[in-house]
Amino acid sequence: MKNVKTLRWTRNLGLMLTVAFLSACGEEYLQSTINPVTDYGEVTHNLYVQVFWWTMIILVVVLAVLGYVLIRFRERPGQEKPRQIHGHMGLEIAWTIAPALIVVAIVIPTIQGVFAVQRPPDGDALVVEVVGKRYWWRFHYPELGVTTANELYLPVGRPVSLRLESGDVIHSFWVPQLGGKRDVNPVVTKPEGEEAKRNWMHFTIREEGVFWGQCAEFCGEAHSLMGIRVVAQNAEDFQRWVEDWRTAAPTANAPDETPAEDTAGEAGTPSSAESAGPDGGSGPGAQDPTARTTAFPDDALVARGREVFFRESYCVLCHAIEGTPAVGEIGPNLTRLGRRSTIGAGMLENTPENLEAWIRDPISVKPGVQMPGAQYDVTYEGLTFPPTNLDDEQIRALAAYLSSMK
Amino acid sequence: MSVATETAQAPQIAHSEAKGFWSWVTTVDHKRIGIMYFLTSFFFLFVGGLEAMLIRIQLMRPENAFISAETYNQMFTMHGTTMVFLVAMPMAVAFFNYLVPLQIGARDVAFPRLNALSYWIYLFGGIFINTSFLFGAAPNTSWVGYANLTSGVFEPGRNVEFWIIGLSILGISSILGGVNFITTIINLRAPGMKLMRMPLFTWMTLVTSFLLVTAIPVVAVALILLAFDRFFGANFYEVTAGGDPILWQHLFWLFGHPEVYILILPSFGIISDVIPTFSKKPLFGYPVVVYAGILIGFIGWGVWSHHMFTVGLGPIADSFFVASTMIIAIPTGIKIFNWLATMWGGALRFPTAMLFAVGVVAVFTVGGLSGVMHASAPIDLQQHDSYFVVAHFHYVLVGGALMGLFSGLYYWFPKATGRKMSESLGKWHFWTTMVGFNLTFFPMHFSGLFGMPRRTWTYQAELNLETWNQLSTVGAFIFSIASLILVWNVFRSLRKGERAPANPWNAGTLEWSIPSPPHHYNFPSLPEIRSREPLWDDQERDEVEKVTLAEPDHEPEMPSPSFWPAFTALGVVATWVLIMTGIWWMPLVGLAFTALGIFSWAFQPAFR
User: Fold this and answer.
1) Which of B162, B105, B110, B175 lies closest to B131, judged by CA?
2) What is the pLDDT of residue A290?
3) Of B242, B376, B468, the CB nearest to A188
4) B143 three-class SS
5) Which spans in B450-585 are helix H?
């Protein structure tokens, strides 16, 4: 009686779990590993599904036999000593060969998959150099002359090759919907003539969207706060994004200053220059000369912030802004910061208020961040950066300036 | 604490009736050392459990700040370090100590004082690594301590140093233990106790001991290189000087994977003894189960890079490690099938020991199969370092290793104390453990599949991972309650448990032929063994018990107690700890103590 009851209870629990699981799948998981959007992710996912069913079959068989044994062979009152069986050669061989066959069935597609996910693309791939740093990401597009941080813009349909290297400790680049993670290792200094080893990831994105990811190798205090956003756009939007990025934002420089040398132009490919032509005027705040003076009502505040950025602080030591004299490389590139959806590598929504909070006291937003606050210093790889000593007025202006660069 | 000697009768040797604190400090009796190992590891189980609870409370809500990121990092590092090095390994060693001599018909282990030394080094090392909390500098770079995060540039605090020194100390203890048990099992078997007649637990102890003496030196090398980097400015893992942090990963996992089998094989041994007893049938396919265990031990050396599929070793290396890892599933599967076949056709009884043994078969199967998933390298690229892996190895190490040790505890508790543990409390313990354990770790499969990386202090609300984490946290609370029931059961049963005869379970192996608890000399004289289950054959049982239950005219002479192992252990620990002072001659002080200890030890006669 008791057994039957237990069984029914177990079955009900199983039903409940199934329902819970199905309803859970309906929800949106931004970092789901089972919802791939690239060819690379597809390989991983197909293998997962295949192996999942093999293991389920084995699990069900083992648990069914176990359940049967536990019920059928309970000791009964007055039962004689059971027959003393020491083994059975045929059975042993059978349950050696059967798993061996299943193993072969799993290993063959696995090894095909291993080679498939590491094969470089045939076509003309867009190379992005990814640098993981404690605790943010630098994305540099050598072909396009664009450098940005934490938000990786990629075109749909064109093969992408990410070249991964770390600026400090080991990180791991993981955007689950793009496919599996790959470690971002520091580059070992090699003797002359030997090529330094770096990891690569190759994939082609199939649909537009914003895909979430984060560092997946423990890298220190703020490891959990090292987010990645991938913005996949169609070729046209991506091209427009590139064009905007290469030029200084309208408010980046004071109107009377000449922008620093435009290095981005040299790296531009002929094709991108062509497509930029018709779009140039319609791009949000592109090179329209009137935008400079009219688009930002708090122009005075922005101008004040520009002064703080370049003259009253040492921001430029670490940060760069395209088309301006700021070329620091220690921290994230701030070109067109106003367009990013988040600050602090996915930590905060990018609003001027949040930006102020961040500049004033970054550690309270992101413990472990290696950026000095208004009142405290930080030590970064042995170098101590003093407090910025910015007052509220300066911080507000600075935030306005950075937000204005859209 | 005095239970082990409670019923020793009319002893003529001071040691046998020795009581009080000092007698435990100086003991060389493997049974007392086993009990000390057990109590110490049992204590650390709750230290590690407390750390786990803080982790679970922190993760109960997204963007929570119950503990700080730095504290969290210390908690998960110490949770892993504690559970592996201070709980699972030494608790298995507690069983080795108590049982192996009894199972093979020996009066003690081969090197009783070395055994005491192992224990004291373990105790002092365990205390040392936990003193880091007093300085707010507990290790914080995870239990795998990947280079180059552990370098002085990135972690300038003392945290990593506590970890290096602590693990080095604990490693010495493990190597000494391994040497001792290999020698004991090879040399001290009773007449007729051929290798292929040994109980499975002793067999798995032998395999584990070989893994200990071969695998621990590998991590010792890794740690010493790291110590040179940190203390003396060497560059083994320093990229700018041409060192390679990947070297650490190879060394660590070359130790780390055999370590997994060091943790699980003792549990396999335990349930291979428990299941036949409560099925009233001998182990099905005894030689196959033994060979499968040995095979697992061997192949375990060739699979380490499956922890490194994301590192970028190239497709050929990845493919090799895929294949070798999958092959290990075959002997593991064989063990599970043989346990099932042992129960098939038996007359099953379900005291708590058997419940936990069956629990291991069920739960370990789940953990083993999720292991097959990430043995497939491309799948692992997603699952690696996610909560899916956290679910996997807790199914294997808690569901497999720890529950197996619980099964052994309920099974052999009467042998060690002369009293049975409460069965009603035991059943409460088992069922709350099963519910709590599964509720904690099963949802982690989902949080992992839905993108939660491990070793993360918090997660963003948008990721929708809150429900799965809350389930885990609720499960963890239930699991803690289960563990408190166990504590209550252990200490209550010590006083009030039902008195146990020599063979309360009608088991077949040799340790059940002597009184419970055993005399300090175990066997008055050595029995002649003719089969694997000498107590299940009526004639053989009579012959064996005539010897093992006899009252000797005069008690066998046993090794005399010695203070020097504990003293030497202090010296060894001091040598390592004083490296942290950064003064070059300070470790020499510790070395001098060690030398003094060894010298005095050597000149103290083994028998009075």
Assistant:
1) B162
2) 40
3) B242
4) coil
5) 466-496, 538-548, 564-577
For residue B595, give both structure tokens.
Answer: 């030398």
Query: Which positions in chain B touch A213 (Cβ < 8 Å)?
Result: 451
Are the beta carbons of B372 and A106 closer than 8 angstroms? Answer: yes
Question: In this predicted structure, what is the pLDDT of residue B16?
Answer: 52
The pLDDT tens digits of the residues spanning B447-493 come to 999 999 999 999 999 999 999 999 999 999 999 999 999 999 999 99
Is A184 at the interface with chain B, CB within 8 A? no
Cα of B515 to nearest chain A Cα, Å:
25
Does the pTM surpass 0.95? The reply is no
Q: Which of A13, A27, A62 to mutate to test the interface with B (most CBs of B within 10 A)?
A: A62
Q: Does residue B146 belong to the interface with chain A, where contact is any CB pair within 8 Å? A: yes
Q: Does A87 contact B at CB distance below 8 Å?
A: yes
State mean pLDDT over A335-342: 90
- Contacting residues of B for A28, CB less than 8 Å apart: 464
B21: tokens are: 């604190």
Q: Which residues pair with A174 in a beta bridge?
A: A214
CA distances from B220 to A20, B213, B256 (A): 46, 11, 12
Query: According to the model, what pLDDT value does residue B227 have?
Result: 93
Does the annotation mark B480 as catalytic? no
Helix (H, G, I), strand (E, B) or coil at A151: strand
Task: Check whether A137 has a pLDDT greater than 60.
Answer: yes
Q: Is A174 in a helix, a strand, or coil?
A: strand
Q: How far apart are CA B514 and CA A32, in angstroms?
A: 58
Chain mean position to CA A31: 10
Question: How would you class B205 by CB atoms within 10 Å of its CB: exposed for 0-12, middle for 13-18, buried for 19 or more?
Answer: buried
Q: How far is Cα of residue B47 from the mean position of the Cα atoms in its chain? A: 15
Q: Is residue B416 packed enough to be buried (19+ CB in 10 Å), middle (13-18) or exposed (0-12)?
A: buried
Nearest to A87 among B285, B323, B345 (CB): B285
Amino acid in position A156: V
CB contact (8 A) between residue B455 and residue A27: no
CA B192/CA B201 separation, integer angstroms: 18
A236 against A262, higher pLDDT = A236
- Considering B37, B120, B261, B410, which one is annotated as catalytic? B261
Is the bond leading into B517 cis (omega within 30 degrees of zero)?
yes
| pLDDT reported for residue A268 | 38
Q: Is B344 on the interface with A (CB under 8 A)?
A: yes
What SS3 class is residue B196? helix
At B237 the three-state DSSP class reads coil
The β-bridge partners of A204 are A159
Interacting residues of B524 by C-beta distance below 8 A, sequence separation 6+: B547, B548, B550, B551, B552, B556
CB contact under 8 A, A73 and B349: no
Secondary structure (H, E, C), B347-376: CECCCHHHHHHHHHHHHHHHHHHHHHHHHC
The pLDDT value given to residue A246: 84
Cα–Cα distance between B100 and B109 in angstroms, integer?
Answer: 8
Say how far residue B149 (Cα) sits from the centre of its chain: 28
